[in-house]
Write a structure and sequence with these properties.
By secondary structure, this protein is mainly beta. The protein is built from three helices and 15 strands. The structure holds copper (II) ion.
C-alpha cells in the first residue's frame, strides 16, 4: 500500500506539473486563435452538445467530458444491477454444496443506486464534479434451520435482507483538457468519502441471530477514504466517436472496523455513432479487477455466509454494454446503457453479476 501511495502521489504531482504547463501553452494558443476559440466557447456555452454535434461518452462513464469556463451541469442518474448464481472462480457452484460449508447461501441480489451529480468549470482546464449516491440493496438467501433442542439442521428456509441509505459521496477534479485535432485527453482525480454506513445491524430473521452486523457486500460504503485517479481519452471524427477511460479505486488505510475493501482497477473502451442530431448509439467494453478485503470486521462469523468472509470478495469481470444518447433539447442529454458480463471470475463462492443498467438525464447551463 505504501508503495502504491507513493506511485500515486508521484503521478499526481506529475499531472499537476503537466496541467500547469498546459495552462501556459493554452494561453499562447488562445492568443493565436482567439476568434475561433471564442466562437467555439460561445457555441459550447449556448448549445453544449448540440450545435457543434459533439457526442458525449456513454452515460455509464463518469467524468467523461469537461466543460468550458463558467459552465454548470446538473445530472440525475439511476443505476441498477442484478446478481444470481454462485461462482467459484469461473465454475458454477451448487447451493447445497455451499450450505455444507456455510450457515447461509446467497441466492439473488438486486441493487438500485440513484445518483445526483453536479459539474462546474472554473476555467477551461479544470472541471469540478460532485456526486451524491443513494444505495438500495436486497439480498435473498437460503439457510439451515437449526432446531434448538435436537441441534439437527434442515435446509432451505428463504429469507432476505435489505439495506438502504446514503452511499459514499465523491468529489472529483477533471484536469488538463488537451485537445489536438479530433483527440481529447484529461486526467480524472477523485476522492470518495466514507459517508455510507458500514456498521449496520441486521434485522431479526429466521435462521440468523438478530443484531449480527450485515456482511460486507450489504454495506452502503467502503468506510475508507478512497482515491480515484485515472484519465479519459476521447476522439471524434464525423459521426464516429470513441474513447478510453482507465480508473483506479485506491483505499487509503483501514476503516473504523479495521478492514478495507480491495483496491479496484477498471478500464472502459467504447465506440459510438451519431445517427442524427438527436440520437447516437454506443458499444462499450468494461474490464474490472478488484481484490479481497484486507483486515476483517472481527464481529462477523466467516461461516455465516460467504460474503462475510473477507477472502471471498475479490474478482474480475468483463462487461459488454449497449448505450444510446438522446439530445432532445440544446444542452440536455438523456442517456441509457445496459449490458451483461461476458466473462467473470470470482473469489467464491460469490454471487455472479447477471445484468447492469443505467439511465441518466443531464442539463448544462
Ligand atoms: Cu458535464
Amino acid at each position: 500500500m505504501k508503495t502504491q501511495l507513493k506511485i500515486f502521489l508521484n503521478c499526481f504531482c506529475f499531472s499537476l506539473f503537466l496541467s500547469a504547463n498546459f495552462a501556459l501553452a493554452q494561453a499562447d494558443d488562445e492568443l493565436a486563435e482567439h476568434s475561433e476559440h471564442a466562437l467555439h466557447q460561445h457555441m459550447n456555452h449556448e448549445h453544449p452538445n448540440h450545435a457543434n454535434h459533439q457526442d458525449l461518452a456513454p452515460i455509464g462513464i463518469m467524468g467523461g467530458h469537461m466543460h468550458s469556463a463558467g459552465q454548470w451541469m446538473f445530472s440525475v442518474r439511476m443505476m441498477g444491477g442484478g446478481m444470481s448464481g454462485l461462482l467459484d472462480q469461473t465454475s458454477l457452484q451448487d447451493e447445497q454444496k455451499v450450505l455444507d460449508g456455510f450457515q447461509m447461501s446467497p441466492r439473488t441480489m438486486l441493487m438500485g443506486m440513484p445518483m445526483l451529480g453536479i459539474m462546474y468549470a472554473p476555467t477551461d482546464w479544470l472541471t469540478l464534479m460532485g456526486m451524491v449516491p443513494g444505495m438500495a440493496m436486497r439480498m435473498e438467501h437460503v439457510g439451515h434451520e437449526v432446531h434448538m433442542h435436537t441441534m439437527q439442521t434442515t435446509p432451505a428456509i428463504d429469507t432476505g435482507m435489505n439495506s438502504v441509505g446514503l452511499g459514499d459521496i465523491s468529489v472529483n477534479a477533471l484536469l488538463g483538457n488537451w485537445q489536438w485535432q479530433e483527440h481529447h485527453l484529461h486526467f480524472n482525480l477523485g476522492l470518495s468519502m466514507p459517508t455510507g454506513a458500514i456498521d449496520i445491524p441486521s434485522p431479526a430473521m429466521q435462521g440468523m441471530p438478530s443484531g449480527q452486523p450485515l456482511p460486507y457486500t450489504m454495506r452502503l460504503g467502503s468506510g475508507t477514504w478512497d482515491l480515484l485517479p485515472g484519465f479519459t481519452y476521447t476522439g471524434q471524427s464525423g459521426p464516429w466517436g470513441w474513447g478510453l477511460q482507465p480508473g483506479t479505486t485506491l483505499r487509503l488505510g483501514n476503516n473504523s472496523l479495521s478492514y478495507h475493501l480491495g483496491h479496484r482497477f477498471s478500464t472502459s473502451g467504447w465506440a459510438s455513432y451519431r445517427w442524427t442530431d438527436w440520437l447516437s448509439t454506443s458499444l462499450r467494453l468494461q474490464g474490472q479487477i478488484w481484490g479481497n478485503a484486507e483486515g476483517a470486521d472481527s464481529r462477523l462469523d466467516k461461516t455465516m455466509i460467504p460474503s462475510a468472509d473477507p477472502a471471498r470478495l475479490g474478482g474480475q469481470r468483463l462487461d459488454l454494454l449497449l448505450g444510446a444518447n438522446f439530445y432532445p433539447w440544446p444542452g440536455q442529454r438523456i442517456g441509457l446503457e445496459a449490458g451483461l458480463p461476458i466473462y467473470q471470475s470470482l473469489s467464491g463462492p460469490q454471487l455472479a453479476q447477471q445484468w447492469l443498467a443505467q439511465l441518466g438525464w443531464q442539463m448544462a447551463f
